[in-house]
Automatic annotation (TrEMBL), chain A:
Zn(2+) binds at residues 23, 26, 118. The lineage of its organism: Eukaryota, Metazoa, Chordata, Craniata, Vertebrata. PANTHER family: ASPARTOACYLASE. This is Aspartoacylase. It holds the Pfam family AstE_AspA_cat. It comes from Hucho hucho (huchen). The active site is at 180 (proton donor/acceptor). Residues 14-208 form the Succinylglutamate desuccinylase/Aspartoacylase catalytic domain. The keyword Transmembrane helix does not apply. InterPro entries: AspA/AstE_fam, Aspartoacylase, AstE_AspA_cat, Aste_AspA_hybrid_dom.
From TrEMBL, chain B:
It is found in: Apical cell membrane; Cytoplasm. HAMAP family: Aspartoacylase. This is N-acyl-aromatic-L-amino acid amidohydrolase. Residues 308-359 are annotated as: Disordered. Its cofactor is Zn(2+). NCBIfam families: PRK02259.1 (NF002601). Residues 218-299 form the AstE/AspA barrel-sandwich hybrid domain. Its EC number is 3.5.1.114. Residues 324-339 have a biased composition (Acidic residues). Keywords: Cell membrane, Cytoplasm, Hydrolase, Membrane, Metal-binding, Zinc. It catalyses: an N-acyl-aromatic L-alpha-amino acid + H2O = an aromatic L-alpha-amino acid + a carboxylate; an N-acetyl-L-cysteine-S-conjugate + H2O = an S-substituted L-cysteine + acetate. It is a peripheral membrane protein.
Amino acid sequence: MTSSTNVSCFHGARRVAIFGGTHGNEMSGVTLVNLWIQNGKEIQRKGVETKPFITNPRAVEKCTRYVDTDLNRAFTTENLSAPSGDDLPYEVQRAQQINEIFGPKGSPEAYDVIFDLHNTTSNMGCTLILESSKDHFNLQMMHYIKKAIAPDSCPVLLTEHPLLKYSTSRSVAKHPIGLEVGPQPQGVLRSNIFESMRVVLKHALDFIELFNEGLEFPPCTVDVFRVSEKMDYPRDTNGNIIAMVHPNLQDCDWEPLNPGDPMFQTFDGTTIRYEGAGTVYPTFINEAAYYEKQQAFVTTRRETLAAGAIKKA
Amino acid sequence: MEGREVVLPTVSRVALCGGTHGNELSGVYLVRERLKRKVEEEEHISVVTVMSNPRAVQQCRRYTETDLNRCFTHATLSGPVTDKTPYEIVRSQELNTLLGPKGSPEAMDLVCDLHNTTANMGLCLIAYSDCDWISLHIYRYLQRQMSDIPVRFIHFDLPLNEAYSLDSVGKHGFAIEIGPQAHGVVRSNILSTMQEGVQQMLEWVRLFNSGTPFEGGKVDVYTMVKNVDYPRDFETRGITAAIHPQLQDRDFCLLRPNDPVFQTFSGETLKYTGTEPLYPFFINECAYYEKGIALSLARQRSVGIPSIRSEREGEQGKRKSSAEEMEEEEEIKGEMEEEGYQKLMEYGEESDSLNGQYK
């Protein structure tokens, strides 16, 4: 019998990791992972080894984003292949250790799936971060999660971009998934945010279990927001910020920003407007950690990705 | 109480402080903008603008070694300084010289310290006294002038020498605390609120100093009773519950016995076990996890305030002629401004050299 649809066959997702504390002050992930290290019953699924792991313990201890350098930018080829040594920044050493345990990145021995838990001060709700538009396994998982939590929404941010893509801790795995939940201040644990993250992870692990049991997932489409452009705050010649996110844009992650719409407001009340060519969908609006990365928000464009049918080999 | 009019000295010298916690950005930005614009001198009032903790501001952290806003007790201010003394203690003594000395006649008439909180507190004035008529009249004025945001007054009942925050250095003083805002973030609506609050406060001081009488009345005050910590793991001291969703963001909504307070990570609700209904505030303030505070609780009461006006010229026989007094005040003000501005310039150079400002 010939099937009219092509089914991609993957071997089972046997080794799954859940990373918390990649940024030490993003409390939902830190709390969940510590909970599951104590008692992992909630994250166990048939046929899967699910490993909860605190990626940046020193930053967690100090309740700070990072100690020397941002761990979630540290997994570059250069860093991972550098000769190891105590003179390397703490997070680079850590990246090498993580690559050894969960990788090596790009090799057949690497973990199948890594979920990396983050919080943001932006009003992004429960956002899933996808690194590759060709990762059909991840697309199917995200499709499953979105359906499971409907009518609540779960936007998908696609970070596939030649310049803007960054080397994340989860990128060590074959199928990396970022989970970004906000708004939550750094260093604060809000129970509603904590529960949302927990629920999304539950659905993700359910998907993996169903997949491992042999369920075939038919072709589907997933609406995503593909990252487009990084927008910095207006600054003076000394590099000081001279305007803030406009009240009309504040908290409006994933809503359309049209040419001419207010974007920033200077300290004396002048409005600076968006002057792009077309409508974009901003996100990471006013994320605390991005002031130093020269980013007030990032623009995205809507796209629909097609995922082929998948089944365990 | 309300019939009697109280005559008080003018509030001529005001200090406006921001960046006491380096990641509470409304105050940082407000102070930075004022310093940039070199706000003109005005009649009836002189305002010194100060960036309290420039090093913490540069790093966008609450503090570098120790919380600056706990360093203003008499004990800390008079302690010895060595090269091992934490930066913030050195700084508190510098600020005491600049704006105080605390408890002396040379101290600033009013110290207003600008803060943000992650708690949903609206605008709060926080002070150590519930009978400082200047502060309470400013409070009432702000309440009447600012209709967009709830304005409240929190009173911490501590004697002056135990008062630990920067605002206790002035003859009158209070913190203006505005939330909710995440630390390290500037929200335009919160900054606008702070700008308006400062403007209205300075306007009241101008009016008061120019002789405008302010009628007495009653105001509601929240007096701090106690703090409540998170439930913690016996060994690790890690927290084992979060603020309950029904309490989160409900600052100043009366908490009654048996109301939910925490939700454990296994979903259990922990209830308020006190017998007295109290008003919660600083609910889930980020900086207080390390201080063992999940929320604070206060009693609310109504406080009578008298009518007040400022002293007129020649009202007290011993006083100098107004020309002499003004001349002397100008001199002192000039000296202080120069000193303060100079110190600011030292740190200003430090901070401008970093592209991107924060580490």
